[in-house]
Design a protein that fits this description.
Layout (H helix, E strand, L loop, with lengths): L2 E4 L2 H4 L20 E6 L10 H15 L3 E4 L11 H7 L6 E3 L12 H8 L6 E5 L2 E5 L19 H13 L4 E5 L13 H15 L4 E6 L6 E5 L2 E5 L5 E3 L11 H6 L6 E3 L6 E6 L3 E4 L2 E2 L24 E2 L3 E3 L4
Parallel strand pairs: 2-3, 3-4, 6-7, 7-8, 8-10
Antiparallel strand pairs: 1-9, 2-13, 5-6, 9-10, 11-12, 13-14, 14-17, 15-16
Helix pairs in contact: 2-3, 5-6
Length: about 325
């Protein structure tokens, strides 16, 4: 399997990094578009989730984005989270949801979370400006030998994905909550999904599936595997570090009401980004950066992370250039 990891100094600093890819077709209807992306808000963990979402919605409306996507781990279907949904509805354009593994915490089902959000299907696709977009649900129950939290894409969804890709002749972008490239916490059977995407490209004799974007991992990373780019969008709120590195970072009152925050390194300001796709030859992410609230990973004695799992409060301004065919 061909795999290239890109984490250059300029990427870490939020710079623009250019890589080639080839579109499937130069569709006459294709136009430049901008997509607002926010991942892993975790409103049920953070005390200021509503304010973080409000900052994103305000920017998306200011930019007149074509549509927005929340990439999972948004909020559980509690009545007291209706205020967050009201904020979400302030966006003036199309809005899309992706199911995250924590959206069903507390004993909720996927269907309950979907009903609460107004989400019609747990996996689906749509076209916009001459491009094709696929949303997957990586939360199917794990068959053996996989264990732990649900992070599987079952046969029914795989069959649907093959059929969906076969029916389109447009350049395609795939969204999921869990990554399709990193087996450490990503979709358990991600190799099966990669094969479906790569088979679609072989059958098209070109790059039909351009990129796969995810949240879930609360990190800032991009790699390329067999001609498809895999991009992880950082959390809007924090990085989870667990009990060994817990640290109270806000007031005693906040800590009492939101006890899980101490197990994270929160980001001072919300992180989100805007993906711009120009059919003339450029795809890029708008960089976003902030600071940690309180001590960072080095100060609390965390070991150095893996190269594909940086702990940094930013979203890099990755930029892709491609040649028209």
């Amino acid at each position: 399997m061909k795999r290239r990891a890109f984490l250059s100094k300029s990427a870490i600093m939020g710079g623009a990094v250019a890589f080639p890819w080839t579109p499937f077709s130069a569709n006459a209807k294709a136009k430049k578009l901008q997509i607002g992306l926010i991942a892993d808000l975790h409103h049920d963990v953070m005390h200021d989730g509503e304010q973080r979402l409000a900052a994103f919605i305000e920017k998306a409306n200011d930019y007149k984005s074509d549509f927005i996507v929340q990439m999972g781990d948004f909020c559980r279907p509690y009545d007291y989270n209706l205020g967050l949904l009201k904020e979400w509805e302030r966006y003036n354009g199309p809005k899309y949801h992706i199911l995250g593994n924590h959206d069903t915490d507390g004993g909720f089902t996927r269907e309950q979370a979907m009903d609460f959000w107004g989400m019609k299907e747990r996996y689906y696709s749509f076209d916009h400006h001459g491009l094709h977009f696929v949303v997957l649900d990586g939360n199917d129950p794990n068959p053996k030998p996989w264990s732990g939290y649900n992070r599987f894409i079952n046969k029914e969804q795989q069959d649907w994905l093959r059929e969906d890709l076969a029916k389109t002749n447009l350049s395609t972008f795939v969204f999921s909550h869990q990554t399709l490239e990193n087996e450490d916490g990503g979709v358990a059977n991600l190799k099966d999904i990669q094969k479906i995407l790569e088979d679609a490209n072989r059958q098209a004799r070109g790059t039909k599936v351009v990129a796969s974007l995810c949240g879930h991992h609360h990190t800032d990373y991009m790699t390329e595997i067999n001609g498809i780019y895999y991009i992880q969008i950082n959390s809007a709120s924090y990085r989870w570090v667990g009990g060994d590195y817990q640290h109270v970072r806000y007031s005693a009152a906040i800590d009492e009401k939101y006890p899980w925050i101490k197990y994270t390194i929160p980001y001072k300001d919300p992180l989100f980004t805007f993906l711009e796709i120009d059919p003339k030859g450029v795809l890029k992410l708008k960089p976003s950066s902030t600071k940690f609230v309180g001590p960072g990973p080095i100060e609390i004695g965390m070991p150095s992370p893996a190269i594909n799992d940086p702990i940094i409060p930013q979203i890099s301004g990755f930029k892709f250039k491609y040649d028209k065919i």
